[in-house]
Amino acid sequence: MKELLPKLAITLFIVGAIAAAALGFTYAVTNKRIALEDKQAEAKASIAAIPSLKSPSELKAEPQLTAAAKKKVPEVSKIYSSSKGDIIIIEGKGYGGVLENAVGISPDGKVIAVSNISNKETAGLGSKTLEPAFLDKFKGKSINDKLKVGEDIQAVTGATISSTAMTGQVKEALEAYKIITGGSGGAN
Known about the structure:
Structural class: alpha+beta
Radius of gyration: 22 Å
Strand order of the largest sheet: 1-2-3-4-5
Number of helices: 4
Number of strands: 5
Helix content: 40-55%
Strand content: 15-25%
Distance between the termini: 74 Å
Number of domains: 1
C-alpha cells in the first residue's frame, strides 16, 4: 500500500497538470473570440438604444465621463456620445445574475430606448423584461419620473425582481446622464 501511494500521487499530479494545460489552452484560443462577440453584442445593443444611428462608428467612447459617472453610479460601465444622444452601458443584478443593458438617452434627457446586451434571466419569465412590451415602458421617461415598479412601471407578472432590476438600471442610467450633463444637455 505504501508503494502504491506515491504512484497514485504522481498519476494524479500528471492528470491535473494535463487538465490545467488543456483549460489554459482552451481559454487562450477562445478568449479573443469571446471578447469580439461581447463587443459585437454591445454594438448591436447600442444601435438598438438609439435606432436613428446607422453604425456604431457614429458613437464616441467617453472614458472621462464614464469615470465621473462611476463615482456616483458604480453600475455604469461605459458611456458613448453621438449627435443623436448618449448611450449609458449599465450592469446590475437581476434575478438570474448579471444584466447588462444599453440605455439610449436623447439630448433633452429622455430615454430613447433600452436594449439588452447580456443577461442570465430565467427563460420565459424574467426574460420577458427584455422584450419590447416591457422595455417600451421606459421610452420618454426622464430623471423627473419616479421610475418605480408598481407606480409608473408595471412589473411583468411573475418577474417582479427582474422588473425591479431593469427599472433600477434605467433610473441609474438617467442619474448618470444627469451627472455627466450637469442636469441638462448631452455629453457630446
